[in-house]
Amino acid sequence: MTDSHFPSKDAILAFIRSSTTPVGKREIARAFKLSGSADRETLKDLLRELEADGTVERGRNKRMAPPQSLPAVAVLLVTGVDADGELAARPLTWTGEGNPPRIFLLPEKKSRGEDKPLAVGDTLLAKLARINDRLYEARVIRRIDGEREGRILGVYRPSADGGRILPTDRRHKTEFLVLPPNRGDAEPGDLVFADILPAGRAGQPQARVIERLGSTDEPRAFSLIAIHAHGIPTVFPHAALREAELAAVPALMQREDLRDIPLVTIDGADARDFDDAVWAEADGDPENPDGWHLIVAIADVSYYVRPGSALDRTAYERGNSVYFPDRVVPMLPEALSNGLCSLRPGEDRACLAFHLWIDRNGVLIRHRLVRGLMRSAARLTYEQVQDCQDGRPDEVTGPLADSVIAALFGAHARLAAARAKRGTLELDLPERRVHIDERGRVAEIARRERHDSHRLIEEFMIAANVAAAEVLERRTMPGLYRIHDRPSMEKMEALRGFLAGIGHPLTKSADLTPDHFTRILRKVEGTSHAPLVSEVVLRAQAQAAYSPDNIGHFGLALHRYAHFTSPIRRYADLIVHRALIRTLGLGVGGLDDETLGRLAEIGDHLSGTERRAATAERDAVDRYTAAFLADRIGDRFSGRISGVSRFGLFVRLDESGADGLVPASSLPDDRYDHDENAHALVGQRTGRTYRLSSPVKVVLVEADPVSGSTLFRLAD
């Protein structure tokens, strides 16, 4: 027992966690106005308890911090640049479990004699400030010159004087010499991590291999490159794995029993985790004629992943699952993501389920959230469901055709009508699907088909996400909204210039709505311009993000929207689940007070991990595409100009969707000016013009699977 004036263990823990640097007993005593030998002894005992619990760790000079925290001053290695142009770093040495926390570098102050900006590979001494357990800010104290100046990821190739490392980052043009003593166990063609050493003879930069990751002759290495290049965590801490393995399906207890309702999951044929199930029926309420009753049931991840647990910490660090052509890097261990949180047919599963009622116009008129226990009636694919609706049922969908599938499409028709009426942004953006054969090689790259069955699930999920946001807003419960701001004026002017150039002017109204863009898209639908107009319109949009401050979702034309439907693969959805559980009093696993105070910071972190995943996925697809094309050097292809810059043209191939560069230096003999407003390169002497979306014939000059870069030259 402690005296009434003495702070609780939770209060002291909160103080340690809120400090940007590790704290000692003196700072804690000063903060809580503790004095005297009795207070000091009590504080000492409480700190020992916290340390024994594993909730804090004792570091240098007996200073306390959350587990696996970084010191106040550390040596860092600059590792990359994020989507917003901020430099990221990591500790030069890390002995903790899993990956180290993310570190963002604050802008440097200008100093005399130092005008060289920081770059990837630089080593520096920095003062750290902890934002949270997995995120730090760093202010540079000084750069460090010496034996180890940076680290690279690259491919080892033998050479006459030892070997060379070719960096996988296409922006890094330097090759590094590897002398025989520095080769380690690297074999020709291996993907390696290497420390950069001071330049050797004739200024040749050198490197020392420190880790061999595997051979690039193995096609699956392309995803591995993207994973390591973007610092995506792949190893779960033992504590998190143990928590996942010990989890079990809860008893019915206070949950609503949904097991007799034929909920079905509808996913891609290659999906391994099924976190949403749907069902619909005509609403029998005479007050809602021609209305529908829907159920959207989502895996109850919050029951298994509790705030502050090892599972929670690693899920937050990852932020989301990352999907590559040959593998998935999941947010949660397989025991949950493919096990207890996957809504497998015929197995009891814990869920959060929204009962949704829509009227004859597809407008959501009321909803009710329950914590339930369900049993999926079937695992269906988009193709199966579409075939069944089109009159081609199989042995699985046949028995469900009238009782389940027809009702789902009936409800979808109402939701689709409501979407069309409110005027959402409808982009035609073909998605590349890389098909990997049994040997791990690229068999084909094809456009991923979209059916009404895809749109059905999309609309059901949107309805549930709107309901989640409405609950939070109505009850003034803090949470994370999925926000999408209006496009900026600068981007709108550039877009207007492009659209006017192809004969489709965009209104100059200051009150632009998503429907203004959709009308343009409908005008070009079915024409050769359609895919590129969709992409240029997309580029003009603001980036969607997560925030506790709701500004609405411009693209979906919705005043309130929150991600609720994928907590297996998105931590933001897990936050929303917890907020709903807390505000509705649905039991254990609700949002804790500490998280409530960090929602803005959490939203920023999750927006960053989402961008990191998207970039890594795109890089991997680029590498697989380059590998697919590598044996077709010299072949001719049809394509369209997908981008114009002063240094060349970007061309997208019709056949595979591959993007590559036609350097300006390879264009027909002339000097070319870049007309930004017209999205064109124009020859000064000939007037020859290369404009965005124009069809071209190109010859493949180079396809490098390691860097993912592809070069063309014009065929004519």
UniProtKB/TrEMBL annotation:
Keywords from the UniProt entry: Cytoplasm, Exonuclease, Hydrolase, Nuclease, RNA-binding
State the EC number(s).
Answer: 3.1.13.1
Q: Where in the cell is it found?
A: Cytoplasm
Q: What region holds the S1 motif domain?
A: 634-715
On whether Cell cycle is a keyword of this UniProt record, the answer is: no
Report which reactions are catalysed by this protein.
Answer: Exonucleolytic cleavage in the 3'- to 5'-direction to yield nucleoside 5'-phosphates
What's an example of a GO molecular-function annotation for this chain? exoribonuclease II activity
Q: Does the keyword Calcium apply?
A: no
Q: Which GO terms describe its biological process?
A: mRNA catabolic process
Kindly report, in one word, the top-level EC class recorded for this enzyme. hydrolase
Q: Name one GO cellular component term.
A: cytosol
**Location, primary (coarse class):** cytoplasm
Q: What does this protein do?
A: 3'-5' exoribonuclease that releases 5'-nucleoside monophosphates and is involved in maturation of structured RNAs.
Similarity remark: Belongs to the RNR ribonuclease family. RNase R subfamily.
Which PANTHER family does the record match to this protein? DIS3-LIKE EXONUCLEASE 2, RIBONUCLEASE
| Protein's name according to its UniProt entry | Ribonuclease R
Q: What is the lineage of its organism?
A: Bacteria, Pseudomonadati, Pseudomonadota, Alphaproteobacteria, Rhodospirillales
Gene, per the UniProt record: rnr
